[in-house]
Design goal:
Layout (H helix, E strand, L loop, with lengths): L8 E6 L3 H11 L4 E6 L2 H11 L3 E5 L7 H11 L4 E6 L4 H9 L4 E4 L4 H31 L1 E2 L2 E2 L3 H13 L5 E5 L6 H10 L8 E5 L8 H6 E2 L11 E2 L1 H4 L4 E5 L6 H13 L1 E2 L8 E2 L3 E6 L3 H6 L5 H7 L3 E3 L10 H16 L5 E2 L1 H9 L5 H15 L4 E2 L23 H5 L1 H15 L4 H8 L3 H10 L7 H8 L1
Parallel strand pairs: 1-2, 1-3, 3-4, 4-5, 8-15, 8-16, 9-12, 12-15, 17-18
Antiparallel strand pairs: 6-7, 10-11, 13-14
Helix pairs in contact: 2-3, 5-13, 13-15, 17-18, 17-20, 18-19
Length: 470
């Protein structure tokens, strides 16, 4: 029984002979297959850029561009495309060259229609398998999501299990892990699964608070207790009463404040700065750090008694390098998110982009991956992300990637400027010809016109485009 829910596969036929286009279209017509045709290879490349067909069937000898030229351009746009070359002038040298350049098959004319159906049919089935695989990946991603955290490896399942067991009972929890691993998401998960989930979830980043204001921030103050205290002010402990207080980067908290925090955890009461009496509070405390607190204790920068109070329950968040099996799902998650945010139809990553990401050591962990995919999703001018769309530091060889750091914030801040510069350079290289510029950028002409208008470059005159760059 045929699977009626299979997605449609697109096939593009490029041949300068209209009779061949009709013959091949009629021979290959079947349910679930969209057949596109082009009698000019340049028009065919425009269709490739705008529609991204999964399969391309192209003649080898054509005016303007040869089939090998078309193959090279397609491999630049989308290396995942299956390309079949056809020719009446077969040679083993040309066949080998075509395969080396990325062709999936090479057929000799006149082509037996049963042979054509068989060869193309295999590629159609492969394309459907890939589409089914993507659909299953999306389902797997949904089933592998735990309170906003994505993971399916043993380390993540162990962490999820620990959160479930701890969340109904904890009074204080310590979350440890490197920068960018998702300690904030872990803290939110603990709160959402706790009995106080309906209460407030209050966050304090300890590394962002001036040392002299720490006690006032946490415990509050009374009017006149210090210069500038013009009125009574409750602290975050009082504000979080009946809920959860998340103390991020607790390793940066001053020692004097640590002593008072320990008393709050022991006695469940706070005393405002300048007040004579204490107030009872019911607050669950989640602390997080990327520091080695034992090393800080040895350096007399963290209280040992506070550490033992917090670490009675400890949850460690693994590095991305320790759970590489989650990388494809995380990539898919961020692509889906940024495609919606930027209003783009992004299908996924090319194979070579996937390989490059898998080779990276990810020192910035999931946050770095998020930045990399966000950068690539904004920079790509097609509907599939390739290596050149990744930040420049990702272009180095995999062996050098271990020496890289997280994506520089300056890269994110200039994405719109980079897109505008790409448009200007493409117009200059194409001498103002918009169709040629679209092919250079590997996007459709409609997409190019939209982007030119967006950046106020909508002119066929390359001189005016150059002037806009200055």
């Amino acid at each position: 029984m045929p699977n009626t829910v299979d997605p449609v596969v697109s096939l593009l036929i490029i041949d300068d002979d209209p009779g061949s286009l009709d013959l091949f279209s009629n021979a290959l017509e079947q349910p679930g297959l969209e057949i596109l045709t082009a009698s000019d290879p340049k028009d065919g490349l425009d269709i490739v850029c705008s529609r991204h067909p999964q399969i391309v069937l192209t003649d080898l000898v054509m005016p303007h561009l040869s089939g090998l030229d078309v193959l090279e351009r397609i491999m630049e746009v989308d290396p995942a495309t299956d390309v079949i070359l056809m020719t009446a002038q077969y040679s083993s040298e040309t066949a080998v060259e075509a395969i080396q350049k990325g062709a999936s098959d090479y057929l000799n004319k006149p082509i037996s229609l049963p042979t054509l159906r068989e060869r193309v049919g295999r590629l159609i089935e492969d394309a459907r398998k890939r589409q089914r695989s993507l659909r299953l990946e999306d389902e797997l991603r949904t089933n592998s999501e735990f309170e906003g955290i994505i993971g399916r490896g043993p380390l993540m399942w162990e962490m999820f299990s620990r959160i479930r067991r701890v969340s109904p009972h904890y009074r204080a929890v310590l979350i440890t892990g490197a920068t960018g691993t998702g300690k904030d998401l872990t803290a939110r998960a603990l709160h959402r699964l706790s009995p106080v989930s309906s209460g407030r979830y209050v966050v304090l980043n300890c590394s962002a608070v001036v040392e002299t204001l720490f006690e006032s921030e946490l415990f509050g103050h009374v009017k006149g207790s210090f210069t500038g205290a013009t009125q009574d002010k409750p602290g975050l402990f009082e504000y979080a009463h009946g809920g959860t207080l998340f103390l991020d980067e607790i390793g940066d908290m001053p020692l004097t404040t640590q002593a008072k925090l320990l008393r709050v955890l022991q006695n469940h009461e706070v005393q405002r700065v300048g007040a004579l009496s204490a107030r009872k509070v019911d607050v669950r405390v989640v602390a997080a750090t990327n520091h080695d607190l034992r090393a800080l204790i040895a350096a007399n920068r963290f209280r040992e008694d506070l550490y033992y109070r917090l670490s009675m329950v400890e949850i460690q968040v693994p590095r991305l390098e320790e759970r590489k099996e989650d990388l494809p799902m995380l990539q898919r998650h961020f692509i889906t998110r940024f495609a919606a945010e930027y209003r783009k139809e992004i299908r996924g990553l090319t194979r070579r982009a996937q390989i490059r990401l898998s080779q990276h050591s990810w020192p910035g962990n999931v946050r770095e991956l998020e930045n990399v995919i966000g950068h690539a999703a904004m920079m790509t001018m097609g509907n599939i992300i390739d290596v050149q769309d990744l930040p420049s530091y990702m272009h180095v060889h995999a062996e050098q990637s271990t020496h890289t750091t997280s994506i520089p914030s300056s890269d994110i801040g200039t994405l719109e400027e980079q897109e505008r510069l790409l448009l200007i350079r493409a117009l200059e290289a194409a001498a103002g010809n918009q169709s040629k510029a679209a092919r250079l950028l590997r996007i459709g002409r409609d997409a190019l016109r939209y982007k030119l208008k967006k950046h106020h470059l909508d002119t066929p005159d390359s001189g005016r485009a150059s002037a806009a760059a200055g």
